[in-house]
Design brief:
The chain is of the alpha/beta class and 316 residues long. The protein folds into two domains: 7-143, Rossmann fold (3-Layer(aba) Sandwich), CATH 3.40.50.2000; 165-311, Glycogen Phosphorylase B (Rossmann fold), CATH 3.40.50.2000. It contains eleven helices and twelve strands. A six-stranded parallel sheet has the order 3-2-1-4-5-6, sandwiched between helices. The chain has a six-stranded parallel sheet with strand order 9-8-7-10-11-12, sandwiched between helices. The longest helix has 17 residues, at 16-32.
């Protein structure tokens, strides 16, 4: 008689760039527990992306309750304790996700890979916070017994979409000028994006602006400076972005989630960093990714960005 499948919990709450990079670790977890049931605890934003990946058997949504939302915390505790998980892999490794380990009190506790005090399989490297995300998570898995884990760029080949509705020509480049609203220091000035867009258009490459709906004023400002730009703000989901990236001549954008998704497709990508984030710790990886960093980011000239695009053959 076959033994019942074990239940394995994976915790990854966000943000988009972090979630995309964690897909590599999730793929190794899936292979290691091929015959077991893997449950992902994540947020609603990433549920469809997680389902499309095929890496998880079940997806549970975390409302990320605030300290005063006692009933929501009790719901989380009931889910965790009722799950009867054999092991949990905390890929968020935040104070919040580490606290979830304590919600199992008074026990029994599952085996736990992460940084929660008292857990069975801690990631004990004291320099873990100085490691690139991919290296850190691969080492965390190896310390927990998944010896085959390696730091590889994430695979997003499962994302597909029909982008013909956008009416783009055969040669275009993606521009991602937005980012977290509370981190304006991570944004390159829109005038610089407009200058690059103008050069792209002059070279026969249509500049395509991507962003969420609330970034429409930003993309609209760039389009006002470069009328040749195509503004898709608020019109693309994750699958659309991946599909567009596969056929794009190249991409340029700030250190923000969509650029991680774009770079993961193999699209030649130029990612812009300020002092607010360190490419050595979090930049997309790959042979077709270039990271440029300046403090402040406004000190980065459009000429240098165009030079990086030329290096990929995006412009002549």
């Amino acid at each position: 008689m076959n033994e019942p499948a074990r239940k394995i919990l994976v915790i990854k709450l966000g943000a988009l760039g972090d979630f995309v990079q964690a897909l590599n670790a999730c793929a190794f977890i899936r292979r290691h527990y091929e015959s077991d049931r893997i449950v992902l605890l994540t947020t609603a934003t990433f549920a469809d992306l997680a389902r499309a990946s095929g890496l998880f058997d079940d997806i549970e949504l975390d409302a990320r309750p605030k300290a005063h939302q006692g009933f929501a915390w009790l719901a989380n505790r009931r889910f965790l304790r009722a799950g009867r998980f054999t092991r949990a892999y905390d890929l968020q490794t935040s104070d919040r996700s580490s606290f979830y380990f304590r919600l199992f009190w008074p026990g029994p506790y599952p085996e736990w890979s992460g940084i929660a005090p008292g857990c069975s399989h801690p990631h004990t490297n004291p320099g873990r916070d100085l490691m690139h995300t991919l290296d850190r998570q691969a080492e965390q898995l190896r310390m927990a017994g998944i010896n085959e884990a390696e730091a590889r760029p994430p695979d997003v080949s499962f994302l597909h979409a029909d982008t013909s509705r956008f009416g783009l020509g055969p040669r275009y480049a993606l521009l991602v000028p937005g980012g977290a609203a509370h981190r304006p220091d991570k944004r390159w000035p829109p005038e610089r994006f407009a200058a690059v867009a103008t050069e792209l258009a002059g070279s026969g490459v249509a500049p395509v602006l991507l962003g969420i709906a609330r970034e429409a004023p930003l993309t609209g400002r760039i389009r006002a400076l470069c009328p040749a730009a195509v503004d898709l703000a608020g019109r693309t989901g994750f699958a659309d972005i991946a599909a567009l990236a596969r056929h794009a001549a190249g991409a340029i954008g700030n250190d923000t989630g969509p650029m991680h998704l774009i770079a993961a497709t193999g699209c030649p990508s130029v990612v812009l960093f300020s002092a607010a984030s360190d490419p050595a710790l979090c930049a997309p990886r790959g042979s077709r990714v270039t990271a440029l960093r300046r403090d402040p980011l406004a000190a980065l000239g459009s000429g240098e960005v165009l030079g990086a695009l030329r290096g990929f053959g995006v412009v002549s």
